[in-house]
Amino acid sequence: MATIKASSMLLPSLPSSSSSSSRRGIAKATLNLPKLGIPKHSKRDLVEQLKKRSSSVDYERIETRNTITPMEDEDYHAVSSRNHSAASSPSTTRLMSPSGSDPLVIAKLYEIMGAMADRVEMHKNIGEQRDNWNHLLLTSINGITLAAATMCGVAAASGGSGAAAANLLGLKLSSSMLYLAATGMLAVMNKIQPSQLAEEQRNAARLFKQLQNQIQTLLTIGNPTSSDVEEAIENVLALDKAYPLPLLGVMLEKYPSAVEPAVWWPQQRRKQAKGLGKKINENGWTKEMEDEMREIVGILQRNDKADYLRLGQKALKVHKSLAMAGPLLTGLACIGSAFVGNNNPWAAMVGVGCGALASVVNAMEHGGQVGMVFDMYRSNAGFFKLMEETIESNLNERNVWGRENGEILELKMALQLGRSPSELRNLATSSANRKAATEEFASKLF
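Request: output the structure for the sequence above.
Response:
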């Protein structure tokens, strides 16, 4: 095999004086060539050697072009043109979608995925930064408050005239200034609630990852269309509105008058159907599955969402009380420390006692992250509201092929609630048989 390859490589460089002499020269070269062994080199070295050999053969072909017959010249040009067309053919470099989707739609979805990945990193970094705010501000304010209370106590214990009076005045002023600074810092901290801000950014990062996975699944097994692109853009903008990054102007209300579920998805566009009179057994849907999904929606509304709204209302009351108590106590301590001395024991009691109590309240509110707990309850209620709207939008769609596949929807709802599909069916059956509001919660996760 090596001798045949060598003869084929030597063929273009032989002079074409006559056909018989060429054949004799080729036969002689073939007989005299030794057997070639395969060199033990890496694949990269082998490719480079083949390139060098091919380039040397082309060079020899150019040098001996004047001695080639017209027939050989035509064959050479034919082979060269085929090689050039094969190398420059767009089918070797262009990637087409195996599912037949529009390449422009796929490119847009990949751009949206890139924007989502960037938002995930932004929300993650900003969430870590605001969590650091919570820890640093909590430590600083408590340190300032305790230092002011200590100075107030020392000033109340010193008293006297002359040098002692001068020291008393310095301690009083220092304590009052520290209390005043702690009051201002605590008011700002209670306004922005860093622990709640960090929880919002964590939720946003998780939800953007969820949307990113949905688009990746659509690109892998689905057939994306332009409507999928519009839906993805709407989801991104809705998340941007639900969990904004800036603080000034667009920050979420930290002390709302009423607790409402968090909403981070666009409104459903599907129109409500007036009824489904016949059984539907296509696209994974049956009449029994419709009844099951309606029972699950009822359980979510009566138990899960209502319970988290109730807990959120309690957390909001505690949140407001602690947020008002902290600056109020430090303000009273500031006033009390200013009147320390002159045989006024009540001023010392107010200055020291309110300062110590303010540190406890501050630790309970921000160390316990009450704002984060309130936002978590509100987000959980929003999670159950999203499940309700997802099920209802499918049930209200008259055309079964316009719905999500029934079996896939059932599996998704069951996994989100921490159940298996059989457990979800049993829950719906038991709720329907009792003909009353069941006490069991649909979710087993939280």
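Residues 149 and 352 are 5 Å apart (CA to CA).
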